[in-house]
Write a structure and sequence with these properties.
By secondary structure, the protein is of the alpha+beta class. It contains six helices and four strands. The chain has one domain. Helix 2 packs antiparallel against helix 3.
């Protein structure tokens, strides 16, 4: 069933603050595709998009993290990546928005960060990336929130 999933930048604009996002992927595939020769980069990019549309459903670490978030009563929701260009419609890639302010003094943020990262900021999980999107960057695409924006594309 079709579902509207907001981009992480749209969520930041709604929240009026910087926001946190988790991205799930197959690290070995990413490294192999990044090493593709220049002539194969277009194909590699397509393989990466195809992978992201499917892989999140089979990565056990994603469900493990969701279970931990739920156990800690951390609110999360599906989200789409930040759109640097035009609004995009497509399949869900498994990314999730974490409704926790990025505040190093906040105990809930400290627990989240400790669960996801080692003290030296390396990720504890190979197939997960942890991102912070500042509100200032999210505001660069605020025109996408205007009524009728999609109709004018």
């Amino acid at each position: 069933m079709p579902q509207l999933i907001h981009t992480i930048d749209h969520i930041a604009r709604i929240q009026q603050r910087g926001v946190l996002r988790l991205l799930f992927y197959d690290r070995a595939l990413k490294e192999r595709l990044e090493a593709a020769p220049p002539d194969d980069q277009l194909d590699a990019q397509q393989q990466w998009r195809d992978h992201r549309l499917e892989a999140w459903e089979t990565l056990l670490v994603r469900q493990q993290i969701i279970d931990w978030l739920d156990a800690k009563d951390i609110v999360w929701q599906p989200c789409a990546p930040f759109m640097f260009g035009w609004v995009m419609m497509g399949g869900y890639m498994g990314d999730i928005y974490l409704d926790v302010p990025c505040d190093k003094d906040l105990p809930l943020y400290q627990a989240l960060e400790a669960y996801l990262q080692y003290p030296d900021d390396r990720m504890r999980f190979d197939n997960v990336m942890f991102f912070y999107l500042p509100l200032e960057l999210a505001m660069e695409k605020a025109e996408q929130d205007e009524p009728g924006f999609i109709d004018e594309i």
